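Need the bound structure for flavin-adenine dinucleotide, inputs here:
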Amino acid sequence: MPHFDLCIIGSGSGNTIVDEQFADQSVALIDQGVGPNAVFGGTCLNLGCIPTKMFVLPADLARSPSEADRLGVDLTFNRADWKAIRDRIFGRIDPISAGGEQWRASSPNLTLYREHAHFVGPKTLQVGDDHVTADRFVIAAGSRAVLPQIPGIEDVTVHTSDTVMRIDDLPRSMVILGGGFIAAEFAHIFSAFGVDVTVVMRSGRMLRHEDDDISDRFTELIEKRVKLVRNASITGLQACDDGRIRVITDQEPVQEVDLVLVAIGRQPNGDLVDVGAAGVDLDDGGRVIVDDYQRTTADGVFALGDVSSPYQLKHVANHEARVVQHNLLHPDSMITADHRFVPHAVFSDPQVASVGLTEQEAVRAGRNYVTAVQDYGTVAYGWAMEDTQHLAKLIADRDSRQLIGAHIVGPQASTLIQPLIQAMSFGLAVPDMARGQYWIHPALPELVENALLSLKFDD
Ligand SMILES: Cc1cc2nc3c(=O)[nH]c(=O)nc-3n(C[C@H](O)[C@H](O)[C@H](O)COP(=O)(O)OP(=O)(O)OC[C@H]3O[C@@H](n4cnc5c(N)ncnc54)[C@H](O)[C@@H]3O)c2cc1C
Ligand SMILES: NC(=O)c1ccc[n+]([C@@H]2O[C@H](COP(=O)([O-])OP(=O)(O)OC[C@H]3O[C@@H](n4cnc5c(N)ncnc54)[C@H](O)[C@@H]3O)[C@@H](O)[C@H]2O)c1
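Answer from helper R.:
Posting the output first, comments after.
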């Protein structure tokens, strides 16, 4: 039975842990692969953040004629060459994945297993036909797309984000089930490329976990481009003779479309790793329970990323991997993970970015707060953009004058929010942030400056 100093399950964020500091340790890295081709390197690189954003950029370009038109420039969108876009994107990503795998396979102190692993006892894994033991383990096994139980779903081909980016041809029409991150991003991508998109969602608005003002504005704007079927469920799927899919909902007339994309959340993979056999507990949501040091309930077993985190974001998984790396190397001076101000962005059109509390959460938490809403159109660059639709919303504690939430819906939201994340992380009070630095004129961050100045603490 092979025995290692350290065993890591998962080649996504888990793959970042082992560097030259582990040169004197024997390491097993185990990964069954993700997606239809079981590729190495995890979700973000192969099926998540990276390819989606590589599709978002050409989608933004495809949308530019409507923006240009408002500014007096006559552009025409002719066609998105889907195959060329797809092959460029995966022509870039696949070699990175293959190169990473090759590099790991040739590391002198590391043994790479490309098989499914599951625990069969404390610190004992079954990997294919082998049993592997180790002194310490890191569970970085990620999450998987959830498929709903809909009558007829087995009779048709239903896509998830794992497969939809590799299809051969653009569909003419599609239904997206779900109203969250993935639905928002793919609704933008496919509708920009000319696909007739319908989003079927359980709630009344998209991105419903965002601040109400942001979610409402996003829903209003995306609805100009895609059809929204609200407060609805898909009650049946049927294969049509012409290869299309008949989608039956409890709201709308039956619709026949070329493609159905399911985006109703991702479930952590701890169950499939049988973590219970190793004495590792899961919470009610199926997540591996970890403490602030990323330690599980089993001695010497750490976990990180989607398998244990409520955030399911790559920057969180990366941060936790750095914490686990430190704690493996320095067991006598461990550090804790910092989850105080976890931001996120949705790369749709419009973009959405957020950090901290929504106003609804501030109310529920009983906070004494002030808010400011600043329209893009109130700052000089927003005038240049002729913007009338996008906004930033800040929430600050009335007593401490610290920001407790920041939310932006509009162009460059994911970039504009960064100084606000910085202010919250380092405890910079609103008046100091607003007036303690220059803001380049007439750049778009003046939106942030003006939003800060609009927070009135003395009313
Ligand atoms: C479409 C999409 C877009 C996204 N966009 C963004 C974004 O823009 N920004 C952002 O921050 N986040 C984004 N995310 C989320 C982000 O991809 C994840 O949070 C992140 O990749 C999780 O990393 P991880 O290391 O926890 O898991 P993963 O990267 O999924 O790695 C887990 C690895 O474990 C392996 N594994 C699992 N079980 C076993 C087993 N039993 N045996 C062997 N190997 C196993 C898998 O093969 C996989 O390689 C997106 C996700 C999706 C799906
Ligand atoms: N830009 C980013 O950072 C980014 C992009 C994509 C994905 N992600 C990550 O991936 C995760 C998964 O994305 P997602 O969009 O699948 O999940 P999500 O949690 O963002 O949204 C899921 C949506 O599906 C709905 N839903 C849940 N169960 C349903 C059911 N049975 N029937 C109908 N609707 C149902 C929910 O109400 C919600 O609107 C995200 O939570 C996020 O953490 C991040």
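Comments: The domain at 350-454 is CATH 3.30.390.30 (Enolase-like; domain 1). The mean pLDDT is 97.
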